[in-house]
Fold this protein.
Amino acid sequence: MILALVLSAALGWFAGSRWADGSDAAPAANTELVAEWTDAVRDRDPQRISDLYTDDAVWFDEAGDEEFTGRAGVQSAWNIFGYVDDVVEVDVLAVSADRAVIRWDFAISSAMETVGISVLEFNDGQISAETVYYDSAQAP
């Protein structure tokens, strides 16, 4: 239920947004950046993932109330999540000039399978922040 509310709020950021030229399209650079991110996440490659972030990026786990800063912090966060056995699915729900909302499913052995949401924020062609939402009651 909480995840549904978060998803609804996150997608609400995009509702009715239009660019100066009147189009609904996200800048191509952001779409490409999100595609690189999803590929790196599917490959579970913390180095490739962290290379997509700014030097001063903030990665925040809303459910676990943990914050990591900088590329090294982002890489540490993804190393912690390295126990994920399988990223089942990564769906890009929306991309705009300054953020993206991504839904993902993952499994940790047979103990847990969960759905989560990442909200990415962009700055100068890189990811400047990521906030991760999932049901912490499902975490091992």
In short: The two ends are 20 Å apart (CA to CA). Strands lie at 53-61, 66-69, 86-95, 99-108, 112-123, 126-134.
